[in-house]
Design a protein that fits this description.
Oligomer: heterodimer
Number of strands of chain A: 13
Helix content of chain A: 40-55%
Shape of chain B: globular
Strand content of chain A: 15-25%
CATH architecture of the largest domain in chain B: Beta Barrel
Radius of gyration of chain B: 38 Å
Largest sheet of chain B: 6 strands, mixed, barrel
Strand content of chain B: 5-15%
CATH architecture of one domain in chain A: 2-Layer Sandwich
Largest interface: A-B, 111 and 106 residues
Strand order of the largest sheet of chain B: 9-17-10-16-15-18
Distance between the termini of chain A: 53 Å
Distance between the termini of chain B: 59 Å
Structural class of chain A: alpha+beta
Number of strands of chain B: 32
Radius of gyration of chain A: 31 Å
CATH class of one domain in chain A: Alpha Beta
Strand order of the largest sheet of chain A: 10-11-3-12
Number of helices of chain B: 27
Structural class of chain B: alpha+beta
CATH topology of one domain in chain A: Gyrase A, domain 2
């Protein structure tokens, strides 16, 4: 029997490019290339069988896949836990999971309860711990409060005294000079270092102002990225690299940090992805996040359902919520909107606008008692009326 | 009966009724606040005027001459003495218009250049049917217009307008705040030009803004506000009628006062009162004013309340409708019927009917049905009544109620072709069966009727999974399709056997469960050998009617293995390679030589190795034996397989015997001691951690406080205590233990459940933390304050067999309560999520070109799911089971 080379096999499979999708072709290629002694005939036979099976597995036109997808995601919701927090990747970070997280994703929330990033690093940084820590320090937000033991106001001298914590300072790679520089920029008085304490001497200020200043400097950003409160460094055993996990998310700013691998960075803040990377990335993020939630709960949901939800959420280029402020509220039909939520408002406004309901959707047709344009309702049957009268079978015609 | 019709309603135009229209459509002016005369006849010009339609049977409408069902009702009207504002528009539109139009010339407060700019933008958006951008443009127009302090057209100064809930407007003139009366608003609005209105998002052809100020009020027909007569003969009027009475009374007083030239103050007060009544007539839950109340103190249910909410007109009556031909009762199991069947109580079968048209082919049968009548005699063979009928419908449409027919035989002779007989439900009819909550499409499936004695619906145990039903008092609903189309769709699309595969994950959702799983394990394990008589007994239950294979053991007695018996029910050409649930996932799989017999090999329908458990035939298990049978052999064969397998397994199990009792969770003394020692040891470790904490020697984990670290460490030690105790218990329990059989085959329960029964219940928790709430600084008064040891914080060291101590019992109840609360909260949140999802996605469907579009025509996916594959027809998400195909092709090659 003539043996097929890999290239020949690849050719043979790709001949059927337009018959079945790439994912299946790749799968066949991967599996067949492991087998020895395949003849041209055998491969063709296998491909014929696969094509047959593929055609049999196609969706039927008219199928109400929207409803099926909604049910497939909604039904397991009853089985999910309400327990909000769990650990993701590293023990130190809490992440919202289960039903609350799924709702968060579908709501397209602007402020998720626990934003979280996974930051992969570029070559030199990924392999060495010290290098990785360098990046960690660049990302983690340090404020004066977070590196000092105590901040006191001395009203007699009109001074604010910041007692720095040396260990923390070292850990974050900060020097007192930097703090002095930053504080000086505020132009609220003379700043100097005295026995590792930083003193702000501001004799010109009123007592009220000095307390205000005291509050202000606590949150003064020294280093790092806004919104990222903690960065945890951890070794990914599989990749054999150091990876950073952050509490808080700020995709645009972290992307610009040197050492961060922009191609692999991840965040669970979907709206942020929409704003920085665009709608295609958003769609993929919704799919990934929703799949992760369901998988974590041990629920088996076909990816196609999740893709459909992600697609309709991102259909018009914006991230639209599943619900009254998104998809359901932007429907064309007045009756469909009115029958979902805020009934009366929709009716009154549509009257003022002189809207017209074209009755093309499902709810509208249910309301007026007509057949819905879906499933078997999409089909019309035209029968030849002469059939019975002539008492002939169709073949005779 | 349903007949195919062309679409009747093409579109619906929304708009506001103009005063002229209201006057034209009114059949009468309503002038009296009274309803009935002394003699009980409705007053002419009153609220129950006969011309407004009829609500009493037998009476004819004075306007259209129809009787109750056919008279649609007719509107009346009330001429208001002074105009009032429609609440629904006060804030959203009237306020907007007042602020963005000129108080003198009524033009929009934008110069002509800006007007032109926005006109173009709106036209463009309208052409593209882009509702979203249109509304954004309008918002911008309003924002810009209301900034102007001087009219660009007539140069008049503009003042700030203040809105006060719910219907008052004030203009802040230099002289002070002046109220703008509805009449004044009406006058200003009349002058707004159509093109200006377009910019503000109002379609002037269908709704002029001045129409939002009511000068004449339409009175809804009586059929909208039907009064009810109580048994005592007292009439009770609808809430709307009550409200209309108020309006008419005040309106009259206002008119009289105006005509008598009463002081301005009194007129204004009455006007305000009229506004209140009209407002509450429209919406009785407006913020800022007290709701109008009934004499009894209950708030009135007026127009808005009727439409809104779950029980409102839209969701309660229009999107969901009540139906006839339905039944509901308790469900109970019947393992002897097919999964496709449902047992229907005789009493229900005699009430629900199927209309059947008399033809030349069925006339004899129909005659018999009519003869049997509404109360047929008992059929000796089945033990239930013969099929009868309740009504016949003559070709002229007249219904004959068979209960009141003297001689049924005569009536039966009377029927002819073209009659319709409404016959009782009988065996083989297709009906829809449903259990709420209907969370997925498998919550409504079509079953074949089996009329049975007693009063419950009977269903096969395998369909419990899709319905999520059990028999602790669950009730289910049944619906009878009434048309041939409906029955056909029902049979082809909704039959139980067509729903074995779930579209959620592409695997069987209907399959063996509970005892069926235990039984199949016991049957197919290696040690099961069955004598000839027993084999035939099993196969009889499994409805196997062919020959026996050669026995596995021929001498001294002929014996068959359980695997052989199982194989007889399989289709003869199934090939499956799978793993059992008992698989220990050894590093090197020994395949068919596995000591746990957990490698399933089925070749040409013969189970060669592997034990059949939940993984192979269970519900909710993908890529299993059952899955392959459904996919390769179709739903008919799969149903047959499930039916005969379940019945055979039950037969086997009732002979084999299977029970769970106290002895199954009991342990030898030695084991008890070991468990006790283990728990004590771990508790000691926990105490040591606590001591270290008290001494301040505990090192906090990064990112955690000292207390959090302590809790985490204690929790993990105690979890280890329970797990290791459980594994000790496991050592003393072999596969001969029923509890172990159930847990390891997946029939019911888990290893954890066994551990809790036999060894140690373990730590109880609330919100993932040890129990700490209760008294000051302690969970129960049995402990010292600040005791943070295991026992004082909800660690249950007993097991269910020995029983819990009082404190342990209390902690356990606390943990259990949390679980219950959690479920209750979850059902409502996930229910709402489901509703939102369905509402957002329901319009999507696949077109003939596999493109996913909404019914509006917007494309959502160019190819459904990127590969066009139906998840239900996929092999657990994969379009094709390539491995199986390769194996099959290669094996045929070898021959």
């Amino acid at each position: 029997m003539p043996k097929l080379s890999k290239d020949q096999l690849f050719e043979l499979i790709n001949e059927r490019e337009d018959r079945f999708p790439k994912s299946i072709r790749l799968d066949i290629f991967r599996k067949l290339s492991e087998l020895p002694n395949l003849s041209n005939k055998t491969v063709s036979k296998i491909l014929d069988s696969v094509e047959d099976a593929y055609l049999r597995s196609l969706v039927e036109p008219g199928e109400a896949i929207g409803t099926v997808a909604a049910q497939s995601i909604g039904e397991p919701g009853t089985q999910m836990t309400l327990k909000t927090f769990h650990y993701a990747g590293v023990a130190e970070l809490n992440v919202t999971l289960g039903l609350p997280r799924l709702i968060e994703i579908l709501d397209a929330r602007k402020n998720p309860a626990s934003p979280f990033m996974t930051v992969y690093l570029e070559e030199p940084y990924a392999k060495e711990k010290e290098k990785a820590q360098e990046v960690q320090r660049r990302i983690e937000l340090s404020t004066i409060e977070s590196i000092s033991d105590d901040i006191t106001v001395d009203l007699a001298l009109m001074q604010i005294k910041i007692s720095l914590n040396d260990v923390l300072m070292k850990d974050k790679g900060l020097k007192p000079e930097l703090i002095i520089e930053k504080l000086s920029k505020l132009k609220k008085g003379e700043v100097y270092n005295k026995n590792n304490d930083i003193i702000i001497d501001s004799k010109d200020l009123t007592i009220d102002d000095i307390y205000k200043l005291n509050e202000k400097i606590r949150d003064l950003k020294l280093k790092g990225v806004k919104g990222i409160t903690r960065v945890i460094i951890s070794k990914d055993q599989e990749l054999d690299e150091w990876v950073l996990f952050t509490a808080g998310s700020n995709l645009p700013d972290v992307l610009s940090i040197p050492g961060v691998d922009p191609t692999r960075i991840k965040t669970n803040h979907i709206q942020e992805i929409r704003d920085t990377l665009g709608i295609e990335a958003t769609r993929q993020a919704i799919i990934d996040e929703a799949t992760a939630v369901l998988q974590d709960q041990g629920l088996d949901v076909d990816i196609r359902h999740i893709m459909l939800v992600a697609d309709i959420m991102t259909q018009d280029g914006n991230l639209r919520q599943i619900g009254r402020h998104g998809i359901s509220g932007e429907k064309e039909s007045v009756l469909a909107r009115a029958s979902f939520e805020v009934t009366v408002k929709h009716l009154l406004n549509s009257a003022a606008r002189g809207e017209r309901d074209k009755l093309r959707g499902i709810t509208e047709n249910v309301i007026i008692g007509q057949i819905i344009p879906l499933g078997t309702g999409t089909v019309d049957l035209i029968m030849w009326s002469g059939y019975q009268r002539n008492n002939k079978s169709i073949k005779d015609v | 009966m349903w007949t195919p019709e062309l679409k009747k309603i093409n579109q619906i135009q929304f708009g506001i009724l103009s005063p002229d229209e209201i006057r034209k459509m009114a059949v009468t002016k309503i002038i009296t606040a009274d309803t009935y005369n002394e003699d009980g006849t409705p007053i002419e010009g009153g609220l129950i005027d006969r011309r407004l339609g009829t609500i009493e049977p037998g009476q004819r409408c004075k306007t259209c001459g129809n009787q109750v069902g056919d008279c649609p009702g007719h509107f009346g009207m009330i001429e208001l003495a002074r105009p009032v504002i429609h609440v629904g528009y006060a804030k959203s539109i009237i306020y907007k218009l007042l602020r963005s139009t000129c108080r003198a010339c009524s033009r929009i407060l934008l110069d002509s250049l800006t007007i032109k700019k926005y006109q173009r933008l709106i036209e463009k958006a309208a052409k593209e049917e882009d509702i979203k951008t249109t509304s954004e443009i309008i918002k911008e127009v309003v924002k810009e217009a209301r900034k102007k302090s001087e009219c660009p057209h007539c140069s008049q100064p503009q003042f700030k307008i203040k809105y006060e809930k719910p219907t008052s407007f004030y203009e802040e003139t230099p002289e002070g705040s002046v109220r703008i009366t509805p009449s004044e608003i009406q006058k200003r609005f009349e002058g707004i030009q159509t093109q200006d209105l377009n910019l503000l998002g109002i379609d002037a052809t269908h709704s002029r803004p001045e129409w939002m100020i009511l000068s004449v009020l339409p009175v809804p027909p009586v059929s909208v506000r039907a009064s009810i007569t109580l048994e005592s003969g007292v009439r009770s009027e609808d809430d709307l009628t009550h409200k209309l009475v108020d309006i008419i009374r005040i309106n009259q007083r206002l008119r009289e006062n105006i005509e008598a030239g009463a002081p301005q103050l009194i007129v204004e007060d009455l006007w305000e009162l009229l506004q209140y009544h009209v407002t509450t007539f429209m919406d009785n839950e407006v913020a800022g004013i007290p709701p109008a109340r009934h004499r009894s103190g209950r708030a009135l249910r007026t127009l808005t309340q009727r439409l809104r909410g779950k029980e409102g007109r839209f969701r309660g009556n229009l999107s969901g409708k009540r139906v006839d031909f339905s039944a509901r009762t308790v469900v109970s199991p019947d393992p002897n019927i097919s999964i496709n069947e449902v047992g229907v109580p005789e009493q229900i079968a005699k009430i629900l009917t199927v209309p059947e048209r008399v033809t030349e082919w069925n006339i004899e049968e129909m005659k018999e049905l009519v003869m049997n009548g509404p109360n047929p005699e008992i059929n000796e063979k089945t033990g239930v009544s013969k099929t009868g009928s309740n009504y016949i419908i003559r070709p002229d449409g007249k219904r004959i109620d068979l209960r009141f027919v003297g001689d049924l035989n005569n009536t039966a002779e009377m029927i002819d072709q073209g009659f319709i007989v409404e016959r009782h439900l009988r065996d083989g009819d297709m009906v829809l069966f449903n259990r709420q909550p209907s969370l997925h499409r498998m919550s409504i499936m079509a079953h074949e009727v089996r009329v049975m004695p007693f009063k419950t619906f009977r269903l096969h145990l395998c369909v419990c999974t899709p319905y999520n039903a059990d028999f602790d008092g669950d009730e289910m609903n049944l619906h009878v399709p009434q048309s041939e189309e409906a029955r056909a769709e029902t049979r082809v699309l909704m039959r139980v056997q067509e729903q074995i595969l779930s579209p959620r994950y592409g695997g069987p959702i209907i399959g063996a469960l509970h005892d069926y799983v235990s039984a199949s394990f016991l049957l197919t394990r290696k040690k099961t050998l069955i004598s000839k008589e027993d084999v035939w007994q099993l196969l009889l239950a499994g409805k196997y009617e062919r020959e026996l294979p050669l026995p596995a053991i021929a001498y001294p007695t002929e014996l068959w293995t359980g695997k052989q018996v199982f194989s007889l029910l399989l289709p003869s050409d199934v090939n499956v390679t799978a793993k059992s649930r008992t698989c220990r996932k050894h590093d090197v799989c020994k395949g068919e030589l596995c000591e746990y017999d957990s490698s399933i090999y089925i070749r040409s329908g013969q189970l060669l190795s592997g034990v059949i458990d939940r993984r192979a035939i269970g519900a909710d298990e993908s890529e299993s034996v059952l899955h392959v049978v459904v996919k390769d052999h179709g739903s008919d064969r799969a149903r047959e397989f499930l039916d005969s397998l379940t019945q055979m397994l039950l037969e086997f199990l009732s002979h084999e015997g299977f029970s769970l009792g106290f002895s199954n969770v009991n342990m030898p003394e030695e084991g008890k001691k070991r468990i006790k020692a283990l728990i004590a040891e771990n508790e000691k470790t926990a105490d040591e951690i606590i001591e270290a904490y008290h001494r301040g020697e505990l090192e906090p984990l990064p990112g955690k406080s000292l207390e959090e670290t302590l809790e985490m460490r204690i929790m993990s030690v105690l979890a280890k205590a329970r797990d290791s105790a459980g594994s000790v218990a496991n050592d003393y329990m072999g596969i001969s233990n029923s509890a172990v059989v159930m847990a390891s085959t997946g029939a019911k329960g888990t290893q954890l459940n066994i551990a809790q029964m036999a060894a140690c219940v373990g730590q109880q928790s609330i919100r993932g933390e040890r129990i700490l709430r209760g008294y000051r600084k302690r969970s129960l008064p049995h402990f010292r304050k600040n005791d943070i040891g295991p026992v004082a914080r909800g660690f249950v060291r007993s097991n269910y067999r020995t029983g819990l101590s009082p404190t342990e019992f209390f902690f356990h109840a606390q943990g259990g309560r949390e679980g219950l609360v959690d479920t209750a909260v979850r059902t409502s949140t996930s229910g709402y999520l489901q509703r939102r999802l369905v509402n957002a996605l329901q319009d999507l469907h696949v077109n003939y070109d596999i493109i996913v579009r909404t019914t509006e025509g917007d494309v959502v996916q160019l190819r459904y799911g990127e590969d066009g594959v139906d998840p239900m027809k996929s092999y657990h998400g994969r379009p094709v089971d390539i491995d199986a195909i390769i194996e099959e092709v290669l094996s045929t090659e070898e021959d």
